[in-house]
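#structure-requests
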Amino acid sequence: MSKSELTKGARKRLSSLAVIVGLLISIIGYGVLSGSGASTTPKLALDLSGGTSIILAPVLAEGETVSAEQLAQAVAIIRQRVDASGVSESTVKTQGSNNIIVEIPGSPDDNTLKLIRSSAKLEFRPVLVTAQGISSTVTASGSASPAASESPAPASTPSVSPTDKSDVNWITPELQAAYDALDCSTPFREAGQVDDPTLPLVTCDTDGFYKYILGPVEIDGSTISDASAGLQTTSTGATTNTWAVNLKFDGTGTQQFADTTGRLFPLEAPRNQFAITLDGFVTIAPTIQAVIANGSAEITGNYTKDTAKTLADQLKYGSLPIAFEVQSQENISATLGSEQLTSGLLAGAIGLLLVVIYSIFQYRGLAVVTIGSLIVAAVVVYLAITLLSWRQGYRLSLAGVAGLIVSIGITADSFIVYFERVRDEIRDGRPLSVAVDVGWKRAFRTIIVSGLVSLLAAVVLFVLTVGNVRGFAYTLGLTTLVDLMIAVLFTHPLLQLLARTRFFSSGGTWSGFDVKNLGSAGYVGRGQFRAAEKVAPAKLAKASKEASKRQTIAERKAAELLSPSKKSGEKN
């Protein structure tokens, strides 16, 4: 590749980076000017901005206790609710053997507080009326089938009382009017609303696609002993490639489920369906295709591995029979976090200064590349975190700041690997412009492997941990990706351009590429080395011997022609 092509490619990569930075700035600027909730600074987490602390205590009857598993399920449910409300970097943890502490950054709105206070309630209700659509099915080893079309409800007051929980005589004119007026695209339930299990319910599914009139509760979610996602099995025990959700009930639930499926199975659609509701919304409304008396059911449909696992988690974690009451609620000061943030930023500044000093001492003029890369990386990371704060509700915590500080070392490591590879090529006698490209090819593999290891560690931490540790993992992974991008789009192309300037290509003392200061001899062809001033005679002799082994055919012939003249001179 010619010099002009290399220069053109370097400028193109630098231009690409400038476009990315400009695009990030434009998106954030548009969000700020349009009033869409964007800000020019990242949102701060609880430990840096303060917030609200809520202590929840379970409501138990006399003699009842809450198990550690139930408490863990409650923590998972509350965390899902808080995350779903758009609040990130919150802390949900247990206190002692009964209580749960919820800490939310900033000032949460009333809706979020109601979601936290309300108990999760998973219930099974028979379907009386539903909109037209396709639903899942449930069998002992079942398969999916279409749900029925919308069934009109009675328009008059029933003349007789309902005989069972799937009797359409539950539907009164008031209930029918509420169903007809229901618009699932608009909010229609209050946060934390508790429904009477002995009365019918008008509601929608969690996606807002279908509305229902449901009968009274048939089975309480607390009777589910387990729910898991897995591949569907046939009646012969063979495994298919279709994902399903497997339900298991305890003794009470097994009997209730047998009675319910026995009654619903002969009915016409949609009354042969039952709805599983969580917090009053229908998560799924499968059709009964068999009477299930053994307490094991399989819910099938158009599920993927992820959607099946999500439904299984909802059924498993939603089966919590206990409610909570607010024991205390107070504001949290961010004084401690602010002090720690100041100390952390000071430590980061000292570390950054030491990296700059080391670069100047070790690499002379190359420190320009180091400092420039660090500045550009800092700008990109800042813009990325600011954008994520707006679009994903991300909040920067103290642990996240620690991840940013650690990234300074990761970025500096990339520079050192690259610069040393270039120096190695210069020691081998290559001119700087060639050494930059050859050294990059050798260094890039190392930089990629190092970055992937850091990224893998960040992903594992993010997946396996909760709370502030995830904030550390998040920023560590983000900065690792930015480091790789900066190395490709800024560090390497910038050094390519600088290598063609007189200051660096001449190998001056302050260029960072002065052979005299590289601590080794440089092979320059024809069996000769360009020796550093400080190289010991023994090392120089060894290098000369090495040079004779590396001579080309032309260099050997030149040496042979020179050898007789030397001998003739010695005789004279």
